[in-house]
Amino acid sequence: MNTLLTTGLALLAATTAIPASTALSAACGMKVVQSDTDFPMRSQLRGQKGTVFLNVTLDAKGHATGAEVDRSSGHLLLDLAAKRSVLEKWQFDVSHCDHAFPATHQVAVEYRNEEYQ
Hints:
117 residues, alpha+beta, TolA/TonB C-terminal domain, five-stranded antiparallel beta sheet, 36% strand, disordered N terminus
């Protein structure tokens, strides 16, 4: 499990990237190498938490070119923040992959909110 960088409120909230197991990612060893993830302040203050599963389309350089929510966290703000973060900030290591790109990889973004429960 890769730990993401936390938001400015490190004591209040944390996010984690959990590579979800898929045959494609396991076959070539795709992994998240940078995963700055936004945690909306409104969600933090409301005590929202949960895990968003995203199907991410990657190019040959490991950049996300598309992301779709496969399973929702139950909170639209968290789902949108996870999708936006993956598309704008995440980087994947695809150097061990020898299949054609674009390729799809599933990741899970876990939002934890220990302070506002």
